[in-house]
Amino acid sequence: MITFADSHVDLMGDVTFSQKQLIRRWDQELGKKWGQEVQDNLRDFMQIKASLNPETFPNYAANETLLAEFIADKQVCYERRIADEAKNALLISVIEYEQAVRRKAELELLINGREAVEEVPEETDPVTGEVTQEYVPAIEAVEPMAQTIDQEGETVDNPDYLAAVAELAECQAVIDGAGAEVLAHVAARSGQ
């Protein structure tokens, strides 16, 4: 017995689909059970069924049963495709949110810089052997981005700084616009 997939969208993954791709995938699911020739024959039967005499047309009852089963399977595939479209839209929003959070951190570092962190060696208790201080690697300082630059003897706004601030605002808008469902899936994907 051929069964249909529950879904083609993995909310824990990073693969998104266009609507056309989802339609094609669910058409392929239907095609696993109902070949194209059978689908065409059933469509033909459905179109001429009203003009046929069930008593004299060969295999009328069998075709009627197959048609009902085909329609039920097509409905299942359609419902699952619609559900996949909603899951896919959610996944796109989740990925956009995750990218915005990462990019925001990069931009804040670029704009604000950071102080250097000295290496901290691991320390252990000589009696128990327990680690009392985790090792922390040294981190180099990052100079903050200049807000202004000298250009031909004039002090002007740094276009790179302005672009970074504008992009930071875009990232923050994506983060602020995330709904509860997006945040719940982001937390689930990060294991929280």
Can you tell me about this structure?
- The protein is mainly alpha-helical.
- It has two domains: 19-112 and 145-189, no CATH class; 115-142, no CATH class.
- The chain has helices spanning 19-33, 36-48, 60-112, 159-176, 180-189, and strands spanning 123-124, 131-133, 148-151, 154-157.
- α1 runs antiparallel to α3 (60-112), α2 (36-48) packs across α3 and α3 (60-112) packs across α5 (180-189).
- The chain is elongated and about 95 Å long.
- The two termini are 39 Å apart.
- 9% of the residues are buried.
- The mean pLDDT is 93.
Itemize the secondary structure elements and their pairings.
Elements: H1 19-33, H2 36-48, H3 60-112, E1 123-124, E2 131-133, E3 148-151, E4 154-157, H4 159-176, H5 180-189
Antiparallel strand pairs: 1-2, 3-4
Helix pairs in contact: 1-3, 2-3, 3-4, 3-5
The structural domain count equals: 2
In round numbers, the mean pLDDT is 93
- Oligomeric state of shown chains: single chain
Query: How many DSSP H or I helices?
Result: 5
Strand content: 5-15%
Q: How are helices and strands ordered from N to C? A: HHHEEEEHH
Radius of gyration: 30 Å
Number of distinct beta strands: 4
First-residue to last-residue Cα separation: 39 Å
Helical fraction equals 55-70%
Strand arrangement across the biggest beta sheet: 1-2
Global morphology: elongated
Biggest beta sheet attributes? 2 strands, antiparallel
Structural class: mainly alpha
Are there runs of 5+ residues with pLDDT below 50, and where? none
